[in-house]
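Session log. Operator J.P. requested a structure for one protein chain; no other inputs attached. Running the standard single-chain path with token output.
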Amino acid sequence: MTTTEVNPFLAGNYAPVHDEITETALRVRGRIPSALAGRYLRTGPNPHGVPPQPYHWFLGSGMIHGVELRDGAASWYRNRWVRTADIADAFGELARPGPKQPMYFNGAQLDGLYPVSIVLDGQAVNVTLCSRDKYLDFGIIGCRTSVPHLQRLLTHLETSLAELETAWG
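Structure written below.
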């Protein structure tokens, strides 16, 4: 007898979402405090089509999910694919990647980009990415009160990137 192991990152709450949707008629179970106002945005893995095997949740496409809370209600939910070259091609759109060649300034080759963003009111951490040539550069900034050990994210990031490189081959 043969059994097929289900990848936990492709099932249940982690199962891929197949469509981009916008919903405005949202039902809420329970009660949303009226003082809670703002947008919750989450970026996560979401393979498009048949996921590569063996599947690692850092490989493939991603999707951004968002919900707006205001006046004790959820105003809207939206999700959109991260427009990588593969996704843009699948939707018949132009790709919008970063530069695919080395970048120079005043004759010197750019060795790294250090993206910086801001932490907005009510946000604990902001992770910003920039792509260039064959590299992906990360910038992490956060509220030291909400995330007192922010530097630990770097350790987890390095570990996860090593797993990704191993899975990629």
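Operator note: The chain has two domains: 1-97, 98-169.
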